[in-house]
Design a protein that fits this description.
Elements: E1 2-3, E2 10-18, E3 22-30, E4 36-44, H1 52-67, E5 76-82, E6 85-91, E7 95-97, H2 98-108, H3 113-131, E8 153-156, E9 161-163, H4 192-195, H5 202-218, H6 228-236, H7 252-261, H8 273-285, H9 293-303, H10 305-325, E10 334-335, H11 375-397
């Protein structure tokens, strides 16, 4: 448990998680005549407040978050600094991450491909807004989220879709910069140019959405079970898994949209999120019964009923104690720590990195993490593995080099076994 305290007019009632740079609380604000409101507060950790680099990163995130105001993006209410403590105040989302929803509802058999396409359309709507954001003088900010993934998409119990965690977003006016040789984000959803530290624009986010669409169509994780070095190698040569290797007859419109979004070269992808969304909306319009946000919200609410009840009970108990003691009472009690994933501003120092995890309880936002080592080492590792594999194969096959040719008169041509990198079952 963590010691209770106040942050401005906000009193934490539960700790949702802590990461490399920040601690995230479910908090309550109290107004006149007993008015209170639940919010999420993200506070820069004490041990980073004296580091100008981390303070700048946090302010960069705050500056961007304060500008974002769209139904499909988590709302940031304010940014405050009190007693040298920096913190963001965000809306409290009652819902679950898309990764958690996909995992549980797939097991229950209630999540369809088209439900996910509907969510992806909403994600694209939020991205279109963020990508076209301008400053107060009308100059384009060229926002790139850089960490679009099911972990960073929240589906509320009302069926709303919210894109979260712009903590590592790139803008043209940001003060902090990514160090050379270091990547930020989740490799399994990265575009090739992002994975290799090249310049990225909005089309890198569309590649990530393409991975989400690929997984919605196939019902599988694109890179499941593959080491990062192997993923990096396949990205480097444009070897993206094909939908047809996993399912026989995907809807042509979805397959075409997915393949365009996953093009290796940015110029071959959709030019913007609006164009991709239009194609997916056109597909949904052909359905006899298109999925609705209300239906999806009902499914999510039922599937996570137990978690929702538990958290509601915890909130009610903490609010009762808060009303009894007063929101600004001395921090003489400890607050519970909810077992939920961490939200943190991406650590820029390797030793501060933590693995990304899925959301387990409502109201929490997921981690955005920076890779703990340069991507070039991943590529080198992948190449070394391939070379060693080739050497071993040569050594094994050498004694058979003089063996008689295989008789193929029957018409059957011997086929070499599939390698792990091309065997569809290897990714399941």
């Amino acid at each position: 448990m963590a010691l209770a305290k106040t942050l401005g007019k906000y009193r934490p009632i539960a700790e949702l998680g802590r990461g490399g740079m920040a601690v995230v609380y479910l908090a309550a604000s109290q107004g006149p005549r007993g008015f209170s409101k639940l919010v999420v507060v993200k506070e820069l950790r004490d041990d980073f407040t004296q580091d100008p680099e981390f303070g700048t990163m946090f302010v960069d995130e705050a500056r961007l978050a304060a500008r974002l105001n769209h139904p499909n993006i988590v709302q940031t209410y304010e940014v405050e600094e009190e007693d040298k403590q920096l913190f963001l105040v965000m809306e409290y989302l009652e819902g679950q991450s898309m990764s958690a929803v996909r995992s549980r509802l797939s097991k229950l058999g209630t999540l369809t491909r088209d439900h996910q396409v509907r969510v992806i359309c909403d994600v694209l709507d939020g991205l279109a807004y963020a990508h076209d954001l301008v400053d107060y003088g009308g100059t384009a900010l060229n926002v790139v989220h850089r960490d679009v993934s099911p972990h960073n998409v929240i589906i509320t119990y009302a069926g709303e879709t919210k894109l979260v965690d712009f903590g590592i977003a790139k803008t043209s006016d940001q003060s902090s910069h990514t160090r050379t040789g270091v990547i930020k984000g989740k490799l399994s959803y990265m575009a090739p140019e992002q994975a290799f530290g090249k310049k990225v624009d909005r089309r890198a986010d569309l590649f990530a959405v393409g991975v989400m669409l690929w997984e919605a169509i196939t019902g599988k994780r694109m890179w499941k079970g593959m080491a990062e070095g192997a993923i990096a190698h396949r990205l480097s040569v444009g070897d993206i898994p094909k939908i047809s290797d996993y399912i026989a007859d995907p809807p042509p419109a979805l397959r075409a949209a997915c393949e365009r979004a996953l093009a290796t070269r940015p110029e071959d992808r959709y030019p913007n999120a609006v164009a991709m969304r239009q194609d997916l909306e056109a597909y949904l319009a052909t359905l006899a019964q298109p999925p609705s946000a209300r239906d999806l919200g009902r499914l999510v609410s039922e599937a996570f009923r137990e978690e929702r009840v538990k958290l509601a009970g915890l909130v009610e108990e903490q609010m009762r104690l808060l009303r009894a003691r007063g929101i600004h009472a001395a921090p003489s009690v400890e607050i519970p720590r909810v077992q939920a994933p961490i939200i943190s501003l991406t650590p820029s120092k390797p030793e501060a990195s933590q693995p990304a995890v899925d959301i387990a309880l409502p109201g929490a936002l997921p981690v955005s993490q920076e890779a703990p080592y340069p991507i070039k080492w991943l590529v080198a590792a992948g190449v070394i593995v391939l070379l060693l594999g080739a050497a071993v194969t040569t050594a094994i096959m050498a004694p058979w080099a003089q063996a008689p040719a295989v008789n193929t008169s029957s018409g059957g041509t011997p086929q070499p076994p599939l390698s792990a990198s091309h065997d569809p079952k290897a990714h399941r």
